[in-house]
Design a protein that fits this description.
Elements (H helix, E strand, L loop, with lengths): L4 E5 L2 E7 L6 E9 L2 E5 L6 H14 L6 E5 L5 H4 L2 H8 L9 E4 H12 L1 H14 L4 H15 L9 E4 L4 E4 L2 E7 L8 E5 L4 E5 L20 H12 L6 E4 L8 H22 L4 E2 H9 L6 H20 L3 E4 L5 E4 L4
Parallel strand pairs: 4-5, 5-6, 6-7, 11-12
Antiparallel strand pairs: 1-2, 2-3, 3-4, 8-9, 9-10, 10-11, 13-15, 14-15
Length: 334
């Protein structure tokens, strides 16, 4: 058996695919049903990732027409990037390509961000400048985004929407579809209450904290919606969860508590970093030490900083204004 491919539960296999980031691996999944196999998440369109998919199919005896559907937890590139390629692969034997299924909101974001690339790059450049980022660094970051966009081709041609509250039947599993916003607006978790397992995407991770970012096209208060979802998820009976990155999660409620504590501490650090009129970039430099980060990591640090600062604005602890650059002051100073 390949080292990047293993059985993790009855009829469920994990495939680990490479990423060109500090986070080196994305976990994707194959689930066997009565009428074929379901793919959960896809990886980036890299040669080695495609090779690993083919190796997994060969090891399990999965033909192109043996794949029933492609499910995405969310639209981010390391989960969405190979969806179009895999969809085309399923149609190579003359059968109709299988559908790619995801939440309606994340399908909307995928169309907006990955199909309208030029508009996205310009929008992000303006966003970084409003965060107080130096223009040279903003140009460098947006150039890197253009390189990333090439790894999210081809685009899937047939996308169907999954509705939270519905059930997804795959063989022995009856997954409840749960809307868990925060990491992305339309992020979905798939939970089987009888088997007590969850495919949790990037919403819950074990060794790192999921990035909670506020981008120009993000719905308001992503951090608030993320924390609310953690409270709701605490009521689920989950014995093991299979995440998008890192090891499996075996202490579900314990990890939820740790994530909430992390964000409490991060909010305190953000508030402490605001001294007079302070930009998002200035707060990021202090909290994340972004001068030591890669361009990919800087993008997320900036957007996560804004999510936390806006949460503090909503909580009445900060005041913000935008005279061309978003500036934050403590409410006690206004």
């Amino acid at each position: 058996m390949h080292t990047f491919f293993k059985k993790i539960a009855k009829d469920i296999y994990q495939v680990q695919l490479p990423l060109p980031f500090a986070l080196r691996i994305v976990n994707v999944y194959l689930v066997q049903g009565e009428h074929g196999w379901t793919i959960f998440d896809t990886g980036l369109n890299l040669p080695e990732a495609r090779e690993r998919w083919i190796a997994a199919f060969d090891a399990l005896g999965i033909s192109a027409d043996g794949i029933q559907q492609i499910i995405l937890t969310h639209y981010h590139p390391d989960h969405y990037g190979l969806a179009g390629w895999l969809q085309a692969y399923t149609g190579e034997t003359g059968h109709a390509p299988v559908p790619v299924k995801m939440s309606a909101r994340d399908a909307e974001l995928a169309d907006e961000i990955w199909r309208h690339k030029k508009d996205q790059v310009q929008m992000l450049h303006r966003y970084f400048l409003e965060c107080g980022m130096p223009e040279t660094l903003s140009h460098e970051l947006t150039r890197d985004i253009q390189k990333l966009q090439a790894l999210i081709e081809p685009q899937p041609q047939k996308i169907e929407h999954l509705e939270p509250g519905e059930t997804l039947d795959i063989g022995r599993y009856r997954f409840q579809i749960l809307h868990t916003p925060g990491h992305s607006d339309g992020h979905l978790i798939f939970w089987d209450p009888h088997e007590k397992i969850a495919l949790c995407g990037d919403h819950i991770l074990l060794n790192i904290t999921p990035n909670i970012s506020q981008w120009p096209n993000t719905e308001a208060d992503p951090l608030g919606r993320y924390l609310d979802s953690l409270n709701r998820l605490a009521y689920l009976n989950v014995e093991i969860a299979f995440p998008g990155h890192g090891p499996n999660i075996e202490d579900w409620t314990g990890r939820l508590r740790e994530l909430k504590q992390h964000h409490d501490e991060r909010l305190s650090a953000m508030l402490e970093a605001v001294n007079g009129s302070t930009s998002i970039f200035q707060v990021s430099r202090e909290v994340f030490e972004i001068d030591t980060l890669s361009h990919h990591e800087i993008r997320f640090a900036i957007a996560e900083t804004r999510a936390h600062l806006e949460y503090l604005v909503k909580a009445g602890q900060l005041y913000h204004e935008n005279p061309g650059i978003w500036l934050y002051r403590r409410a006690t100073e206004v």
